[in-house]
Write a structure and sequence with these properties.
Number of strands: 9
Order of helices and strands: EEHHHHHEEEEEHHEEH
Largest sheet: 3 strands, antiparallel
Radius of gyration: 28 Å
Distance between the termini: 64 Å
Strand order of the largest sheet: 5-9-8
């Protein structure tokens, strides 16, 4: 028997590029920063050439980033007249609903696989042909809409893409996707006299209300990848930060944010993690014992012991890996737009969120 052992390396790189736009309506020249994330992966079979695999993953991520920066766009309106250039809309649309291609392949394959089963369902004594060959072409007719799904799924995708039209409200300010960068124009520096790019603030039409201060409940901040830098303050108590959050047990590397913490809060969260892990393990063991010996299942003593032991071996590590981290994590992160790397973040400290929000507002000239 051949056993394959390998290690897969993944890499992600964030980068930006300044894009120039000449407005189609008023000929205003403006700029915006396009930020994207490139990802890459490479494997080292049998753990051979791990350094080479890591380098290949990094090169693949950089190549993917360069390709995205060259092909994609953000729908940034003209700061003078609110018109969004048609080329920006077209390039933005091409990236939307890209999963329809995989859906077409999946539906077509399922349609092909379903033909034999449809034939068996139809080929009874009444449905057989005179030569006894079965249900004839009827299975193919029934499966045809699925096999030829590209004929109707791709037009649906095209119709959905056409609905993305921020110029529908022109000349009023358009409703834009969350995280759309601001337009920048050239203005002379009052000190040096040289031209510099300055962000032009725009009204928050269609933006998420949760990014605004003074709301009820937990405060959130919406930001683009690379747009904010965590302040050197604890995200729990705002004391000077000396360390970063790290759960004692991680399911996968890279799943956590390195939010700053002070020593006291870091110790408190770690102690809370272990107490929650212990409570989770004891609760799960109690439930398994109740199932095994509480008369729920009709098995003998050996079966109860096997059930309890297997449940503890499999279930306790699984639940301990997930529940304590969910309970003690000092932040919540939601993905607003994975493709464009737009996120929403909240932490235990509202002041920490407000500090991040100020960074976002400053970067957008607000």
């Amino acid at each position: 028997m051949i056993v394959y052992v390998g290690k897969t390396f993944s890499s992600a790189v964030t980068g930006g590029q300044l894009q120039r736009v000449d407005c189609e309506k008023c000929a205003t020249e403006y700029y915006y920063e396009l930020v994207r994330v490139g990802t890459g992966a490479a494997s080292a079979p049998y753990l051979i050439g791990q350094n080479s695999a890591a380098n290949r993953a990094s090169r693949a991520a950089e190549k993917a980033l360069a390709k995205r920066l060259a092909r994609e766009a953000e729908m940034v309106p003209c700061p003078q007249c609110n018109w969004v250039h048609s080329s920006l809309i077209d390039r933005y649309r091409r990236r939307q609903y890209s999963g329809f291609v995989k859906l077409v392949v999946l539906v077509s394959v399922l349609g092909l696989l379903a033909v034999p089963f449809i034939r068996l369902a139809l080929a009874d004594d009444r449905g057989r042909n005179r030569d006894g060959s079965g249900a004839g072409m009827m299975p193919w007719v029934i499966a045809a809409p699925f096999i030829l799904s590209a004929a109707w799924l791709l037009p649906i995708r095209a119709a959905l893409r056409r609905r993305i039209n921020p110029n529908r409200t022109f000349p009023n300010a358009p409703a834009l996707p969350p995280g759309t960068p601001p337009a920048m124009v050239r203005r002379p520096d009052p000190r040096t006299g040289e031209d510099r790019l300055e962000a032009v603030p725009r009204p928050a039409v269609g933006e998420d209300e949760s990014v605004r201060p003074g709301q009820v409940g937990r405060e959130w901040v919406t930001y683009r990848a690379g747009q904010v830098t965590f302040p050197s303050a604890c995200c729990v108590c705002m004391a000077p930060a000396t360390t970063q959050y790290s759960a004692p047990f991680k399911v996968r590397e890279g799943d956590e944010l390195d939010v700053p913490l002070c020593v006291g809060c870091a110790r408190g969260l770690k102690a809370k993690w272990w107490l929650t892990a212990l409570a989770t393990a004891l609760l799960l063991a109690g439930v398994l014992a109740l199932v095994a010996w509480g008369g729920v299942l009709k098995v003998d003593a050996t079966g109860r012991t096997i059930l309890f032991t297997a449940g503890c071996i499999i279930g306790i590590p699984l639940f301990v890996a997930v529940i304590p981290t969910l309970v003690t994590k000092p932040y919540k992160l939601k993905v607003v737009d994975k493709d464009r790397a737009i996120f929403r973040l909240t932490t235990t400290s509202p002041e920490f969120v407000r500090a991040l929000r100020e960074q976002v507002r400053e970067s957008e000239g607000r």
